Amino acid sequence: MFVTSVMxxxxxxxxxxxxxxxxxxxxxxxxxxxxxxxxTSLINAYKDVxxxxxxxxxxxxxxxxxxxxxxxxxxxxxxxxxDINAVMAEQANNxxxxxxxxxxxxxxxxxxxxxxxxxxxxxxxxYIIDESETKEILGFECIKAVSEDxxxxxxxxxxxxxxxxxxxxxxxxxxxxxxxxxxxxTAIEINEKxxxxxxxxxxxxxxxxxxFKEMVMKRVEMMKRG
Length: 226
Fold this sequence. Notes:
single chain, alpha+beta, outer membrane lipoprotein receptor (LolB), chain A, 12-stranded mixed beta sheet, 4 helices, 17% helix
Protein backbone atom coordinates (compact mmCIF):
# COMPACT_ATOMS: atom_id res chain seq x y z
CA MET A 1 0.00 0.00 0.00
CA PHE A 2 2.76 2.46 0.95
CA VAL A 3 4.80 1.74 -2.15
CA THR A 4 1.79 2.41 -4.38
CA SER A 5 0.96 5.74 -2.73
CA VAL A 6 4.57 6.94 -2.82
CA MET A 7 4.90 6.04 -6.50
CA UNK A 8 1.73 7.98 -7.27
CA UNK A 9 2.78 11.18 -5.46
CA UNK A 10 6.47 11.29 -4.53
CA UNK A 11 6.41 15.07 -4.12
CA UNK A 12 6.82 15.28 -0.35
CA UNK A 13 8.79 12.97 1.91
CA UNK A 14 10.51 12.79 5.30
CA UNK A 15 13.16 10.12 5.85
CA UNK A 16 15.04 9.31 9.06
CA UNK A 17 18.46 7.68 8.64
CA UNK A 18 20.43 5.89 11.34
CA UNK A 19 24.07 6.78 10.94
CA UNK A 20 27.29 5.18 12.12
CA UNK A 21 30.95 5.35 11.15
CA UNK A 22 32.11 3.18 8.25
CA UNK A 23 34.80 1.09 9.93
CA UNK A 24 35.36 -0.89 6.73
CA UNK A 25 36.53 2.21 4.88
CA UNK A 26 40.30 2.73 4.52
CA UNK A 27 39.55 6.47 4.32
CA UNK A 28 37.90 6.71 7.76
CA UNK A 29 39.30 9.70 9.70
CA UNK A 30 41.75 10.28 6.86
CA UNK A 31 40.92 13.99 6.69
CA UNK A 32 41.79 14.38 10.38
CA UNK A 33 45.44 14.14 9.36
CA UNK A 34 46.40 11.87 12.29
CA UNK A 35 48.90 9.02 12.42
CA UNK A 36 47.82 5.37 12.33
CA UNK A 37 47.98 4.97 16.11
CA UNK A 38 45.66 7.93 16.67
CA UNK A 39 43.39 6.71 13.85
CA THR A 40 43.09 3.36 15.63
CA SER A 41 42.22 5.16 18.88
CA LEU A 42 39.50 7.13 17.11
CA ILE A 43 38.05 3.98 15.56
CA ASN A 44 37.90 2.27 18.96
CA ALA A 45 36.35 5.35 20.58
CA TYR A 46 33.61 5.76 17.96
CA LYS A 47 32.80 2.08 17.32
CA ASP A 48 29.46 2.21 19.17
CA VAL A 49 28.39 5.74 18.18
CA UNK A 50 25.08 6.05 16.32
CA UNK A 51 23.46 9.26 15.10
CA UNK A 52 20.28 10.18 13.27
CA UNK A 53 19.84 12.44 10.25
CA UNK A 54 16.66 13.59 8.53
CA UNK A 55 15.98 14.21 4.86
CA UNK A 56 13.07 16.53 4.08
CA UNK A 57 11.97 16.65 0.45
CA UNK A 58 9.40 18.94 -1.18
CA UNK A 59 8.81 19.37 -4.91
CA UNK A 60 12.43 19.15 -5.98
CA UNK A 61 13.97 20.86 -2.95
CA UNK A 62 15.43 19.12 0.10
CA UNK A 63 17.24 19.61 3.40
CA UNK A 64 19.49 17.04 5.05
CA UNK A 65 20.64 17.61 8.62
CA UNK A 66 21.37 15.91 11.94
CA UNK A 67 18.56 15.15 14.39
CA UNK A 68 19.78 16.34 17.84
CA UNK A 69 19.45 13.89 20.74
CA UNK A 70 19.06 14.84 24.41
CA UNK A 71 20.44 11.51 25.57
CA UNK A 72 24.12 11.23 26.48
CA UNK A 73 26.45 9.24 24.27
CA UNK A 74 29.92 9.35 25.78
CA UNK A 75 33.12 8.96 23.78
CA UNK A 76 36.53 8.67 25.48
CA UNK A 77 39.68 9.63 23.59
CA UNK A 78 43.10 9.71 25.28
CA UNK A 79 41.49 9.86 28.70
CA UNK A 80 39.11 12.70 27.81
CA UNK A 81 35.37 11.91 27.83
CA UNK A 82 32.81 13.96 25.91
CA ASP A 83 29.12 13.66 25.12
CA ILE A 84 29.14 13.25 21.35
CA ASN A 85 25.41 14.05 21.14
CA ALA A 86 25.97 17.43 22.78
CA VAL A 87 28.82 18.13 20.36
CA MET A 88 26.74 17.14 17.33
CA ALA A 89 23.76 19.18 18.54
CA GLU A 90 25.90 22.26 17.99
CA GLN A 91 25.95 21.31 14.31
CA ALA A 92 22.16 21.30 14.00
CA ASN A 93 22.17 24.63 12.16
CA ASN A 94 24.49 23.19 9.51
CA UNK A 95 22.72 21.38 6.69
CA UNK A 96 22.81 20.40 3.04
CA UNK A 97 20.25 21.99 0.72
CA UNK A 98 19.57 20.55 -2.73
CA UNK A 99 17.53 22.01 -5.57
CA UNK A 100 16.82 19.48 -8.29
CA UNK A 101 15.33 22.09 -10.64
CA UNK A 102 18.50 24.21 -10.53
CA UNK A 103 20.84 21.23 -10.25
CA UNK A 104 22.71 22.63 -7.25
CA UNK A 105 23.81 21.53 -3.78
CA UNK A 106 24.51 24.10 -1.04
CA UNK A 107 26.27 22.87 2.10
CA UNK A 108 26.03 25.33 5.00
CA UNK A 109 28.76 24.53 7.52
CA UNK A 110 30.96 26.09 10.19
CA UNK A 111 34.58 25.10 10.81
CA UNK A 112 37.51 26.84 12.49
CA UNK A 113 35.07 29.44 13.83
CA UNK A 114 33.95 30.58 10.36
CA UNK A 115 30.83 30.03 8.26
CA UNK A 116 31.05 28.57 4.76
CA UNK A 117 28.58 27.92 1.95
CA UNK A 118 29.95 25.08 -0.15
CA UNK A 119 28.50 24.80 -3.63
CA UNK A 120 28.38 21.72 -5.84
CA UNK A 121 26.36 20.37 -8.75
CA UNK A 122 23.87 17.54 -8.52
CA UNK A 123 25.01 14.44 -10.32
CA UNK A 124 28.69 15.44 -10.43
CA UNK A 125 29.64 12.21 -8.70
CA UNK A 126 28.93 9.40 -11.15
CA TYR A 127 27.65 5.96 -10.13
CA ILE A 128 27.63 2.62 -11.91
CA ILE A 129 24.38 0.70 -11.38
CA ASP A 130 24.50 -3.06 -10.81
CA GLU A 131 20.95 -4.38 -11.26
CA SER A 132 22.13 -7.92 -10.53
CA GLU A 133 22.50 -7.05 -6.84
CA THR A 134 19.39 -6.13 -4.85
CA LYS A 135 18.24 -6.17 -1.23
CA GLU A 136 15.20 -5.09 0.76
CA ILE A 137 15.18 -2.04 3.05
CA LEU A 138 11.97 -0.99 4.86
CA GLY A 139 10.01 -3.24 2.51
CA PHE A 140 11.39 -1.63 -0.65
CA GLU A 141 13.51 -3.48 -3.17
CA CYS A 142 16.81 -1.62 -3.55
CA ILE A 143 19.40 -1.78 -6.33
CA LYS A 144 23.14 -1.47 -5.79
CA ALA A 145 25.21 1.36 -7.31
CA VAL A 146 28.92 2.06 -6.81
CA SER A 147 30.61 5.41 -7.41
CA GLU A 148 33.14 5.50 -10.24
CA ASP A 149 35.98 6.04 -7.76
CA UNK A 150 34.82 2.99 -5.79
CA UNK A 151 34.60 4.91 -2.51
CA UNK A 152 30.79 5.00 -2.12
CA UNK A 153 28.18 2.25 -2.40
CA UNK A 154 24.52 3.25 -2.57
CA UNK A 155 21.36 1.17 -2.38
CA UNK A 156 18.42 2.98 -4.02
CA UNK A 157 14.82 2.09 -4.69
CA UNK A 158 13.13 3.01 -8.00
CA UNK A 159 9.80 2.49 -6.21
CA UNK A 160 10.29 5.96 -4.67
CA UNK A 161 11.08 8.11 -7.73
CA UNK A 162 13.04 10.82 -5.91
CA UNK A 163 16.68 11.44 -6.86
CA UNK A 164 17.83 12.18 -3.34
CA UNK A 165 19.30 10.71 -0.20
CA UNK A 166 22.33 11.35 2.04
CA UNK A 167 24.00 12.25 -1.26
CA UNK A 168 22.21 13.10 -4.48
CA UNK A 169 23.24 10.38 -6.87
CA UNK A 170 20.71 10.92 -9.69
CA UNK A 171 20.07 7.19 -9.75
CA UNK A 172 16.37 7.31 -10.53
CA UNK A 173 15.21 6.55 -6.99
CA UNK A 174 15.62 7.40 -3.31
CA UNK A 175 18.84 6.19 -1.67
CA UNK A 176 17.88 4.16 1.40
CA UNK A 177 21.41 3.12 2.33
CA UNK A 178 24.80 4.65 1.63
CA UNK A 179 28.24 3.37 2.54
CA UNK A 180 30.40 6.49 2.30
CA UNK A 181 34.07 7.14 2.96
CA UNK A 182 33.30 8.13 6.56
CA UNK A 183 29.72 7.18 7.44
CA UNK A 184 27.04 4.56 6.78
CA UNK A 185 23.49 5.88 6.39
CA THR A 186 20.51 3.50 6.64
CA ALA A 187 16.87 4.61 6.35
CA ILE A 188 14.80 3.48 9.33
CA GLU A 189 11.61 5.53 8.88
CA ILE A 190 9.74 7.10 5.94
CA ASN A 191 6.76 9.48 6.15
CA GLU A 192 4.82 11.16 3.36
CA LYS A 193 4.45 14.52 5.09
CA UNK A 194 6.82 17.45 5.65
CA UNK A 195 5.60 19.86 8.33
CA UNK A 196 7.98 22.78 7.64
CA UNK A 197 9.08 25.06 4.86
CA UNK A 198 12.48 24.35 3.38
CA UNK A 199 14.98 27.21 3.57
CA UNK A 200 17.72 27.95 1.07
CA UNK A 201 20.90 28.69 3.05
CA UNK A 202 22.64 32.05 2.74
CA UNK A 203 25.70 33.78 4.18
CA UNK A 204 29.18 32.48 4.80
CA UNK A 205 32.18 32.39 2.48
CA UNK A 206 31.29 30.71 -0.80
CA UNK A 207 33.58 27.90 -1.95
CA UNK A 208 33.43 24.88 -4.19
CA UNK A 209 33.68 21.46 -2.54
CA UNK A 210 37.22 21.03 -3.88
CA UNK A 211 38.30 24.45 -2.59
CA PHE A 212 36.82 23.66 0.82
CA LYS A 213 38.62 20.30 1.05
CA GLU A 214 41.92 21.92 0.10
CA MET A 215 41.41 24.65 2.69
CA VAL A 216 40.68 22.11 5.44
CA MET A 217 43.72 19.99 4.53
CA LYS A 218 45.98 23.06 4.59
CA ARG A 219 44.63 24.06 7.99
CA VAL A 220 45.16 20.55 9.33
CA GLU A 221 48.76 20.59 8.07
CA MET A 222 49.34 23.95 9.75
CA MET A 223 47.96 22.61 13.02
CA LYS A 224 50.20 19.54 12.80
CA ARG A 225 53.23 21.82 12.36
CA GLY A 226 52.12 23.78 15.42
